[in-house]
Design brief:
Oligomer: single chain
Radius of gyration: 17 Å
Shape: globular
Structural class: alpha+beta
Length: about 120
């Protein structure tokens, strides 16, 4: 991935509503959500939602598909992973410390760790 593309993706995410929208779509997974459901969950009027969806689409972060009369939006996980990969590809390259372990765990892993 090129620096220009990463800057565009990060720029698109650098807004409160777009970041919330993107996180919602990532949480939903590949099946995505219809635009109306997104608007309701995020309490956005349709014109604002359209504006934010278009910004994320231009950055390549989300996909759109039509199912009957609905537009379904989903996160593009390949692009998401490329952006994260770009940010971390040289992690600790000039350090002797081990610092590249992810600081987060999926919620399912946290629940499993607590149960053990």
């Amino acid at each position: 991935m090129k620096a220009k593309d990463v800057i565009e993706a990060l720029g698109a995410l650098a807004h409160e509503h777009r970041l919330a929208l993107y996180r919602l779509l990532v949480q939903r997974g590949p099946e995505g959500l219809p635009a109306g459901h997104i608007a309701t969950r995020l309490k956005l009027v349709p014109s604002s939602l359209t504006f934010h969806l278009q910004a994320l689409q231009r950055a390549g972060l989300i996909n759109q598909r039509r199912e009957s009369r609905q537009l379904i939006y989903s996160a593009d996980f390949d692009v998401m992973n490329k952006v994260v990969g770009y940010l971390t590809e040289n992690c600790c390259a000039e350090s002797t410390a081990e610092c590249c372990a992810p600081a987060w765990q999926p919620k399912s892993a946290k629940r499993a760790a607590k149960a053990a």
